[in-house]
Every structure is written in C-alpha cells, then in structure tokens.
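We emphasize that the prediction below concerns an isolated chain of 249 residues; any contacts that depend on oligomerization or on bound cofactors are therefore not represented. The input was used exactly as deposited, without trimming of termini.
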Amino acid sequence: MNRIPRRLNKEPLIEAIWQAQFEPKEGLPVGDLLPGILYSDLKVDYPNLQLHRLPTADIPAPIAQFDPNLRFSAKYRMEEPGSPFLFQIGDRIITMNCRKPYAGWSAFKERIFRLLDEIESSGLVPVPGRHSLRYIDLLTLNPAPDLKALQVQFRIGQWNLQNLPLQMRVEVSDEDCNHVVQIATPAEVNFPEGKIQGSVIDLETFSKSMPSSWQDVRTQIDLIHDRSKAIFYQQLLTADAIALMEPEY
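Result of the prediction step, given as a token string:
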C-alpha cells in the first residue's frame, strides 16, 4: 500500500472546499442575513473583502426550496483580491474554498475553525447538517484522457475504456466516512497563466455520523481530512504517479 506523503512538490491540487449544509429556522432568511454578519467579521482579516450577490439570489425562495438543483445553491460570494480563500453563503449552505496555491492543511483548518466560531456566534444556524471536505485535482502526468496515473480500470463488455474520454461519479463507503469520487477526462481548466488540459479528480469526503452541534464539526474535521488523504494516495493514485509528483515524507 502506498505511503502517504506529507506534501507534494508538484502539487496537482487546484481547489479545496469545506462545505456545511443545514436547515434554516422556519421563516428565517439565513442566506440574506448571514452574509452581512460574516462580512463584518471577515473584514478584520480581509480589509479589501468584496461581497458579490449571485444570480441565484433572485430566485424566489419557494422555487429554490423545492428544486433539488437549487436547494443548496449559494446566494452570496465574498472574496479578497489576491487571497486564496473564498466564502459562499446560501439559505442552506456555507462553503469556504481555498484556491490554488493551496495554503496547506494547517492554515486551511485554522480558517475553517474561525469561520465556525463566526457562524456559531451569529445564532442563525444552531444545528449543522452534513459537512464535507472536497479536493479537486488536475492530473497532467499523462496526456488526457490517459488515466495511467490512477488505480482504475474501466470496461464495458469487450471495450476497454482506459484511454477514452470519460465522465464518471461513484459513491463508496470506507470505515467512518463516505466518499464521492468524480473523474472527468479530458478536462480544461482556466488559470491566470492560461488554459491547462488534464484529468480532473474530484474527491468529496464526509462523516457517516451526522453532527448535532458545531462542536461535532470541529471534532470530525481531522478524521475527514485523514480519510480523504488516505483514499487519494492509497486508493486512487499509483505509486509511480506519486513518485513523479516529488513527495516529501
């Protein structure tokens, strides 16, 4: 089984996302109230923070509530130019994104915990629902759609799909966590330096135990991170692929 590196010098990660879902109190428009509170709190650390109203904010609440594609959509986005962190809030969802370059787990976790303190102190979301960590990587070791860097095999009858364009999504259970793995190849991602083509690996991990408080979220976060990391290095990447990314142990 592959050893789990402390870090990769050739990091394929393009975005890390912490997400929490919840059910609002009846009649309370959390998606409109919470952004203002968080904006004031976040301005202390991000003096140039910008608040953006998203198009989904104009969708009537009854429609958004019963449409499964809109139920957990964000209504506002907050970000500071030059910062890797981005915050999004909706009536039933809060996310914190860390874009490339990844700040590292210690810094990401610290910022999550500070956000949890701000959410909890607002009093608007007393009980969280499912929360997860999601890591999106772009593999460029082999020309897409070649998935030689992954421990995967795809066949339909007599057809070997290993080097064909592919989009797939699968949910797997692992000890105390569930994982949602999505693979898309070839895929093109826009970066400041230009477009890069490769294979996108999207891994979302969440605890099987539903939290009953924000303290439960704090308690579970390291478990979710450790299980996600183990799945990525031991079940998805090959040993050769890890070696090419210049790991440090």
